[in-house]
Design goal:
heterodimer, A: alpha/beta, Rossmann fold, 2 domains, seven-stranded mixed sheet, two-stranded antiparallel sheet, 7 helices, 9 strands, about 20% strand, B: mainly alpha, Non-ribosomal Peptide Synthetase Peptidyl Carrier Protein, Chain A, about 0% strand
């Protein structure tokens, strides 16, 4: 596993973004679109564990950063789901991906043209609602009362900071409308077994779940 | 159909990463929020959303307060009340 850089064209010009890569020049090449926001942290180790298994199964895989997230130097508030999708399409081209695996909210910004899977996809509106709820819970602890309606109206007018993520009004407006494309095969958590690791209060790992997801993807790519 | 009690123990098992059977030991007095440092605001939001999905209830944001999450007993009573409404 090595860090790889890829050129990511953004509205302001092309910048360099990082990806974790298992690249041995093999014919099967999987682009993984990460989960979004706090779920990205909780799912990262699991995602990399799946990549290690795919490597042993003879499949190259690539986990790019979304611009504005992880190691990216770009400001998150200048990104939109649309620009994320364009970035993931460019990453797919750069790494010559043959398949895609989108994790959770990653399904909302996955490239359109590749065959592949959505693992436990989630609607944009549900992600927003939960992020806003997290903020309401935090505010209540601090003695302030905020409401879902008021925060959403503010978010759509001027942008909002949710759990440390500064999102533009445009970002929120786009995310709210996004649903996972029906084109890709959905892998439900029931198929993987156990509770989804994105639910965990603390990041965790689960070998059996990583085995199960890697097996589904590996068998699917080979067939 | 599983009881609210069983479903809630399963949800807490997933959120807190408990071992199988560990949540069976929860009593009404078992402390949650405030006793479990890993339950931060985002984790609480995730817990409530998961309760909505699996218990088929809707939780209003103004119903969320410290007391609701104080203990397993208070959360269970809330969830049972919600399910009876729907």
């Amino acid at each position: 596993m090595t860090p790889a850089a890829w050129p990511c064209p953004l509205p302001g010009g092309t910048v360099e973004e990082y990806a974790l890569a298992f690249d041995s020049g093999r014919p099967s090449r999987l682009l993984i679109v990460p989960a979004l926001f706090d779920e990205a942290n909780r799912m990262r180790r699991f995602t990399v564990e799946v990549m290690r298994r795919l490597d042993l199964a003879g499949i190259d895989s690539f986990l790019p950063d979304l611009p504005g997230c992880n190691e990216s130097l770009q400001p998150l508030e200048q990104q939109t789901p649309q620009s994320w999708r364009a970035a993931m399409e460019d990453a797919a081209t750069h790494f010559a991906a043959t398949h895609v695996l989108a994790v959770r909210g990653g399904a909302l910004v996955a490239p359109d043209e590749l065959p592949g899977w959505h693992y436990a996809p989630v609607k944009g509106a549900n992600i927003l609602r939960q992020q806003i709820r997290g903020r309401i819970v935090a505010s209540r602890e601090a003695g302030a009362t905020e409401t879902q309606e008021h925060l959403m109206a503010t978010a759509l007018a001027t942008g909002i900071e949710l759990a440390g993520h500064r999102l533009s009004a445009e970002f929120v407006g786009q995310l709210q409308e996004l649903i996972p494309a029906a084109r890709l095969e959905v892998i439900l958590q029931e198929t993987i077994g156990g509770g989804g690791l994105w639910l965990r209060a603390e990041p965790d790992e689960d070998r059996a779940q990583a085995d199960a997801l890697a097996a589904i993807v590996a068998v699917g790519i080979r067939s | 159909m599983h009881s609210t009690d069983q479903l809630l123990r399963r949800i807490l098992t997933d959120v807190l990463g408990l071992k199988a059977g560990q949540a069976d030991g929860f009593t009404a007095e078992t402390g949650l929020f405030g006793h479990l440092p890993e339950l931060d605001s985002m984790a609480v939001a995730g817990l409530l959303t998961e309760m909505e999905d699996r218990l088929d209830i809707v939780i209003e944001d103004d119903e969320i307060d410290g007391e609701l999450l104080e203990s397993f007993g208070s959360l269970l009573a809330f969830a049972e009340g919600k399910r009876a409404e729907s």
